Every structure is written in structure tokens, then in C-alpha cells.
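Duplicate of #3305? Posting structure anyway:
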């Protein structure tokens, strides 16, 4: 059960006051205009204590493969029944064996949030994987490791390849005719004595030779079991954990519950909440949410958490502003959007800058007199993506500033940056394609391609170079546009945005990419057409393309 026992440390109140003063500093209001009121509500801030739990449900998953021989490295299970029992027992063994349990707890505690707040996550514990094996007699060789020779079928001999089992071959002299030609005419062959055939020397007139496949044993090694007579069904088991989290919400203020629920892991990682592991006497004597015993497949990690929370009121520019203090980092929650009124003139200057096409700098200079707006400009320029910049800034300024105001400022700054760079983007694009036109003129019209060909470069490589012209043109257009835009941007934002940010950022490419692709393709088409009109040598692929097009037209 959650409870509040301890009054807040006065140092936290002082820290909260400094945080509020830091928020208004440089934003149109003097720090002295911020006062922490000594009201009864401020004395109601307390340290709340509550219990929380991370629950890890263990899920073994496995895959099985068969390998020849008897595997001796894996854990042996003698039967399918024993295998099922072992699989059913794995999660319980991990939960109850201190060493294995500690591996999981240590893994969780290596996180910056110590597992506090992990919700609906799944993770794998490689160190807890297991290998199980069932041995089975090889049915193919009847557990002997040997199989009948496929060539001699166990007979140990095979027909002689020379005489094909006939035991004799044609006489090499008369070639079976029984007679030979001599100076005295045709006479009977003396080698075969007129028989036309002689005994086969390869098999010794037996018609068979020893089987070389099985070395005349009639058997070969069983390929299925690698001559072992056994097969191993190897199962690799990986341990996964489904992680969930909950905490005791009873007797906690609803605003505190909402603040924790928003991102409990961040609350611990940022030290808004301090946690410690709940002490237990035995495995099952765990102060729990709920208090029943751990399931066999689940490990509970129980925490005791503390966090300061309570209402507090400031007097800001002679107006009372009430909200809540949360956490040891003194986050200020649910205060009214008083910052919107402080930076109104700065936002108006931004709006004017977003509408202007020229002379934008004076409006930006007026806007960045507010430290908050200067930071929004720098972050939008650095992050580039307006959605991400908006999300980052809303997380950075959660107090006193309407999220809609932040989103509005980000959009205004994005529009302003486009206005600053629009003309120079076009100029840079033109410069980039002037350079590209010079390259195309040298390569296609001034016979640069033919020069490379005369050096012995294969046509295949030249075709690759031809195809590289398109991305080269796109790259030159984009780079020319971006560097010209950067020059314009740096000129306007000098001493408005930190030098480090300007030095390390390039403007977004935006629609320049599309225009660069269109112009690059068009220029290449024009120069190829000029190459054909020149009546000089043209690339083979272009010649093939033209002929194919013409033949298609004639066929139509």
C-alpha cells in the first residue's frame, strides 16, 4: 500500500524555485519577479512511498534438428516423455535456482531504469540457453553402422567391366574374324587358333572382379548415421522473458499516478523516483502486488519506490500560478501556460519573419531577445525535421508553455528558413547544372568519350560511365543548391544562432531533389540528341535504342 510519511527536504523547494526562475530568465521577466509563496499548500508536499513490481514470464522456445552419430556435448534425455517433462521444468528451474535467477535479475539491473517501468517487452537470455539430445538407433543400417553395398548388392563381386561377365573378349589380332592376312594369303589366326576370342585377362576368365566400392566386403558405411549406428535429435532451447510492470496506485494522488504512468522508466533513469529492491526472507516471502506466490514460470522483482510530490504555488509577475512538484529533479507539472504571454512579442516577430521574403534578419534579432525562442530556432535548425523538433522541444519545455505554441513556433521557423534560402537554392541549382553542362559537353560533344575509348577502356565500362551521368547531375544540382543556401542562411543567422550549430548543419534538400532529377534527365537527353545530330560516333547502347524504336514504329 502506498503511503506518504516524510516531509519534503527544504532544499527541493529551493531547487524548484531556481528551476522556475531559470524558466523565465531571458524571456522577458526578471528572476526577482518569481516568488515561492509560503502557503499551506506548499507545506503539503511530501515524500510518497509505494511498491512496484517487474514481472518476467519465462517462455522457452526451441528448434530441433537431426545429426548423425551420438552427440556427447548436449544434455541427454532418454525418451520423448522425459523431453516433455524437461521442457516443462525449464522455467521452474531457472526461477528456483539462485544462480540462474540472479543472472536474470542482474541483466535487468544493468539498465538505467533497473527494470522499473518495462512494459510489454520481450527479451532473450543467451546465457540460459540449453541443448538437449535424444539418441535413436539408425533404422537404415539396423544400428550396425553399415549398409549393403549399392554396387555389388552385398555379393562382394561385380561383373567384369572388360568382358561384361562373359569371361572372354574378341581376339585383338583377328578381331573375331578367326583369320588374318599374310604374305601367303589369308590363313587361320594363330593367336586365338581360329576361335575368334580369347580369355579376359582383367578377370582371369572368371567374369567377375572384386567390388572396389566396398573393398569386396559387401558393406559400406551408412551415410545416414555416418557409420555410427546412431542418430542424435538435437534440440536447442532459448529462454525468452515477457516483461511487464505495475505499481501500487492506492493512496497516491491521481496527478502523481499520471506522471508516473506517462513514462515510469524515465522517472527512474532521470532520478525523479528513487527505488530499492524489496528485501525478502525466502523465495516466496515477497511483499507483492498481489501477495500470492510466484507462478512457476515467472520471476518477480519487487521495488520500494519513493518520490516527492505535492501542490505548490508561485507568484510570477504579481500573479499566483499553482501547479505540482514531482520528483527529486523537481519537475513542475500542470502549471498554467504563463510563458505564452511573456514571449508574445517574440512570436509576433517570428510571424513577421515567416511572411517576409527580404530583410528577415531584423525580425529574427527581435525574436531571439527571448532565450526560449533562440533555443527553438537553434533546435529546429539542428534537428531539421519539424515533427521531431516539435516533439523534442515539448519534452524539453513541459512547464508553463502551451505545446501548440511550440508547434506554431517550429512551423514559423521552418517557413522563415525556407524564405531565407529560397533564392539562393535556385542560384546554387543553376551553378551546379552549369558545371554539369560543361562535363556533358566535354564527354559527349567534344569526343571525351571517344578519347577514353581510344585508351582501351571497354565499352561496358563506358556504358557504366554513361549511366553515372544522371546521378552525377543530381548530386551537382543538390550540392550546389545546399551550399548556396547555407551561405545565405549563415549570413542571416550569424550571431542569432550559435556558431557551432551553423557550422555543423546544412539546409534541407527539400524540393531541390525533385528538380535536380528532372533537370539532370532533361540535360542528358538534350546532349545525347546533339551527339546524334553531330553525325559522329554514338554509344552502342544509344544506337541499339534508336534502332529498336525505329523498328517498332515501322512495325506499327
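Output from current build:
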Amino acid at each position: 500500500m502506498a503511503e506518504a510519511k516524510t516531509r519534503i527536504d527544504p532544499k527541493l523547494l529551493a531547487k524548484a524555485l531556481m528551476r522556475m526562475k531559470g524558466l523565465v530568465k531571458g524571456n522577458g521577466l526578471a528572476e526577482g519577479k518569481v516568488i515561492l509563496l509560503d502557503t499551506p499548500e506548499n507545506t503539503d508536499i511530501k515524500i510518497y512511498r509505494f511498491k512496484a513490481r517487474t514481472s518476467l514470464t519465462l517462455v522457452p522456445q526451441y528448434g530441433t534438428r537431426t545429426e548423425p552419430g551420438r552427440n556427447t556435448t548436449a544434455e541427454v534425455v532418454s525418451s520423448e516423455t522425459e523431453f516433455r517433462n524437461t521442457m516443462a521444468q525449464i522455467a521452474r528451474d531457472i526461477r528456483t535456482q539462485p544462480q540462474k535467477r540472479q543472472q536474470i535479475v542482474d541483466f535487468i539491473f544493468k539498465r538505467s531504469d533497473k527494470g522499473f517501468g518495462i512494459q510489454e517487452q520481450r527479451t532473450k537470455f543467451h546465457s540460459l540457453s540449453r541443448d538437449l539430445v535424444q539418441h535413436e538407433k539408425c533404422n537404415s543400417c539396423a544400428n550396425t553402422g553399415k549398409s549393403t553395398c549399392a554396387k555389388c548388392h552385398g555379393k562382394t563381386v561385380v561383373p567384369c567391366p572388360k568382358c561384361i561377365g562373359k569371361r572372354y573378349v574378341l581376339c585383338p589380332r583377328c578381331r573375331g574374324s578367326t583369320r588374318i592376312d599374310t604374305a601367303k594369303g589369308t590363313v587361320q589366326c594363330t593367336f586365338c587358333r581360329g576361335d575368334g576370342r580369347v580369355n579376359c585377362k582383367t578377370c582371369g576368365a572368371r567374369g567377375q572382379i572384386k567390388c572396389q566400392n566396398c573393398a569386396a566386403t559387401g558393406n559400406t558405411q551408412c551415410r545416414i548415421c555416418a557409420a555410427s549406428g546412431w542418430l542424435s535429435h538435437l534440440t536447442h532451447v532459448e529462454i525468452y522473458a515477457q516483461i511487464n510492470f505495475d505499481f501500487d496506485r492506492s493512496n497516491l494522488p491521481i496527478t502523481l499516478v499520471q506522471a508516473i504512468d506517462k513514462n515510469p522508466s524515465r522517472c527512474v533513469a532521470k532520478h525523479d523516483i528513487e527505488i530499492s529492491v524489496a528485501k525478502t526472507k525466502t523465495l516466496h516471502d515477497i511483499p507483492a502486488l498481489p501477495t500470492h506466490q510466484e507462478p512457476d514460470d515467472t520471476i518477480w522483482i519487487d521495488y520500494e519506490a519513493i518520490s516527492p510530490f505535492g501542490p505548490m504555488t508561485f507568484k510570477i509577475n504579481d500573479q499566483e500560478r499553482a501547479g505540482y512538484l514531482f520528483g527529486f529533479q523537481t519537475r513542475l507539472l500542470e502549471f498554467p501556460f504563463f510563458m505564452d504571454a511573456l514571449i508574445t512579442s517574440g512570436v509576433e516577430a517570428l510571424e513577421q519573419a515567416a511572411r517576409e521574403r527580404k530583410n528577415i534578419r531584423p525580425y529574427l534579432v527581435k525574436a531571439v531577445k527571448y532565450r526560449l525562442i533562440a533555443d527553438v530556432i537553434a533546435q529546429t535548425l539542428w534537428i531539421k525535421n519539424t515533427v521531431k523538433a516539435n516533439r523534442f522541444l515539448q519534452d524539453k519545455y513541459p512547464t508553463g508553455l502551451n505545446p501548440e505554441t511550440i508547434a506554431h513556433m517550429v512551423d514559423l521557423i521552418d517557413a522563415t528558413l525556407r524564405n531565407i534560402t529560397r533564392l539562393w537554392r535556385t542560384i546554387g541549382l543553376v551553378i551546379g547544372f552549369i558545371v554539369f553542362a560543361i562535363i556533358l559537353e566535354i564527354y559527349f560533344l567534344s569526343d571525351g568519350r571517344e578519347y577514353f575509348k581510344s585508351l582501351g577502356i571497354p565499352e561496358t565500362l563506358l556504358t557504366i560511365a554513361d549511366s553515372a551521368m544522371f546521378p552525377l547531375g543530381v548530386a551537382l544540382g543538390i550540392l550546389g543548391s545546399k551550399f548556396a543556401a547555407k551561405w545565405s542562411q549563415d549570413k542571416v543567422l550569424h550571431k542569432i544562432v550559435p556558431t557551432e550549430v551553423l557550422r555543423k548543419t546544412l539546409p534541407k534538400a527539400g524540393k531541390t531533389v525533385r528538380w535536380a532529377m528532372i533537370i539532370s534527365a532533361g540535360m542528358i537527353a538534350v546532349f545525347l540528341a546533339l551527339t546524334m545530330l553531330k553525325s559522329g560516333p554514338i554509344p552502342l547502347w544509344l544506337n541499339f535504342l534508336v534502332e529498336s524504336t525505329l523498328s517498332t514504329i515501322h512495325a506499327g
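Confirmed duplicate; merging threads. The CA atoms of residues 256 and 309 lie 7 Å apart. The radius of gyration is 43 Å.
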